Each structure stands twice: as C-alpha cells, then as structure tokens.
Amino acid sequence: MMAVLGVAMADAFIGCWAVKFQYNTLRPVTYIRRHIDPKWEPLLTTPPFPEYPSGHSTVSAAAAIALTAVFGAGFAFDDPTHADEDLPIRRFASFAEAAEDAAMSRLYGGIHFRFGNEGGTALGRCIGAYAAALQTKA
Q1: CB 46 within 8 A of CB 29
Q2: d(CA 68, CA 54)
Q3: How many other β-carbons are positioned within 10 Å of the β-carbon of residue 48?
Q4: How many domains, in total, are found in the chain?
Q5: What does 37-68 look like in DSSP terms, one character per residue?
Q6: Domain residue limits at 67
Q7: What is the pLDDT of residue 97?
Q8: How far apart, in whole angstroms, are the C-alpha atoms of residue 32 and residue 23?
Q9: Inter-residue contact 60 to 48 (CB < 8 Å)
Q10: Is residue 65 included in any domain, yes or no?
Q11: 138: in domain
Q12: Around 102, how many Cα atoms within 13 Å sit in the side-chain half-sphere?
C-alpha cells in the first residue's frame, strides 16, 4: 500500500509541475486585481508558481485512487488533524470525497480557478490509476 501510494503521489507531483510550466497560467489574484478589484486578497497565501493545474487536486486525486484500490470505494475515515485547535473532526465517506474536499479548498481559498482543480483532479486520477495497476514481484 505504501509503495503504491508513494509512486502515485510522487508521479502526481512530477506530472503536475510539468503541466504547470507548460501552460504557465496566472493565478486568480493576478486576474482579479488587474480586471476587477485591485485591492482583492485571497483567503490563502498565493504560491509563487503557475495556477494550472492545482497541485493539491492532482496529488489528492492520485492518492485517493491508489488508496481506493487497496481499501475499497466505501472506506470511511475520520480526520482529527485540527481537533486540538477546537475544530471539528472531519468525516469522509471515501478517499474520493476527501480528495474532492481538498480540491475545493483551493477554490474557496482563492488560489485556484475551478478549471485548475478540475484539470488537476483528472490528471491525478489518471496517474493514480496507473500507479494502482503496477505489478510488484514478491
């Protein structure tokens, strides 16, 4: 499981960054400030590299496909990461649901366009499926 997950996530990063610098798409903050509101600020700090595709979307989707291949489509889990900060425990019905949540967080945070998330998710699913299909020798 760790090998499949590691390959999926590593290849997702590599694929994502190759595409980012192929398309070199500007971030929402750049577009919005130029054309709508010069004082607009996103909720999240905007990274200093191209928007498309979303890295979180790509890697999360690849990981979700790899983990689903191992544990099944209906594997529910809880995420207590921020419970010590008095935030509620996040509950997910599947890895796919968690990946979609990760992608949407980038849109809501103002650092990705929807097409960046959708492109990243599609790329990640493809890479995750490839990694999950790899054969290992015992």
Answers
A1: yes
A2: 21
A3: 6
A4: 1
A5: -TT---SSPPPSS--SSPHHHHHHHHHHHHHH
A6: 2-132
A7: 98
A8: 19
A9: no
A10: yes
A11: no
A12: 22
* pTM > 0.85: yes
Is 137 a domain residue? no
Which residue type, as a one-letter code, is found at position 64? A
* Residue 9 resides in a domain: yes
Copy the structure tokens of residue 53. 């595709």
Calpha distance 22→118 (Å, rounded): 17
Q: Considering all CA atoms of the chain, what is the largest pairwise distance in Å, rounded to the nearest integer?
A: 59
> In whole angstroms, what separates CA 82 from the centre of its chain?
19
The DSSP code for 94 is S
Q: What angle do CA 54, 44, 60 make, to 5 degrees?
A: 35
| Higher-scoring residue by pLDDT: 135, 75 | 75
The position carrying tokens 């949407």 is 104
Reported confidence tier of residue 137, pLDDT bands at 50, 70, 90: low
Residue type, 67: L
